[in-house]
Give the backbone structure.
Amino acid sequence: MRKGLFGIGWLVLFLVMTGLASAGQFGPTEPTANPGKFSLGVGYFWEDTKWDVFDGTLRTQSHQAYLQGSFAPVKNFEIFGRLGGANLETKDTDLDLKDDAKLFGTLGMKVMFYEYKMFGLGAFAQGTYHFQDYKDSESFAGVDVINGIPISIFETVDFKIKDYYDVQAGLSGQVKINQCIIYGGPFVYFGRAKLHVDAMATASAQGRTATASGSIRDTMEEKTTFGGFLGTKIAFTKQLGLTLEGQYRDEFSGGAFLSYSF
C-alpha cells in the first residue's frame, strides 16, 4: 500500500509541476507606443513547453489571454505592463490533468539602441508573476487481494504550484518595409516555482481501517533556457497594428497581439 501511495504521488508530481508558462509575445524591436504617449492592446498566446522533472521530461500546453498597456517616455524606449490569465493542460502523460485560467501580471521594457534607414537593433526584458496557485486533485479507488483477503483502497493526491515567476531577456533586430515590420532574435528564460504534493491512502479490510500519508516539496526549473523568436507586425493605420509571433525553445509557441497607439 505504501508503495502504491508514493508511486501515485510521484506520478502526479511529474504531471502537475509542468504547468508553468511564460506569457505573451516580445514584439518588434521598436516600441509600440509613440514618444510621450500610450498604447493599449489585447493579446493571445499559445505555449507548448517541455520541463525537466527529476529524471524525466514532460510536456504541457497553455492558452493565455492578456491586456497590455505601454508608455514611451522618450523615443525608442518603452515600458509596459500586462494582466491576463493562463490555463494548464498536461500532454503525453497517463493522466489528463487540467486547471482553469489563473491570474498573472507582467512588467517589461524595450529599447531600440541602433537605427539606420529600415534597420533597427534593440534589447528587451520582462518578468511575469502568477498571483494565484495552480491546484488540482486526483482520487483512485480499487480492491487488492493479499493472502486471500480483499482490501479496499482509496487514495487521493492534491497538488499546489505557488510563488511562480519568470524573467526573460533578449536581443532583437528588425527590418521595416513600408507598413510591415519583420523582426526576430535570441532570448534567455529563467523560471522558478514551489511545488507542494500531498498524498493520502486509506485501506479497509475485515472491519479495520489503516491510513498512510506522504508529502513532497520541491522547486521547479524549466528544461531549456535559450530560445529564438520571429515575428511580423502589420500596420493597418498609423494607430492600429497586428503582431504575429512564433517562439521556439523545445517546442513551437506562438500568438497574436492587436495594438492601438495614441
Observations:
- The chain has one domain: 2-261.
- The chain is about 5% helix and 75% strand.
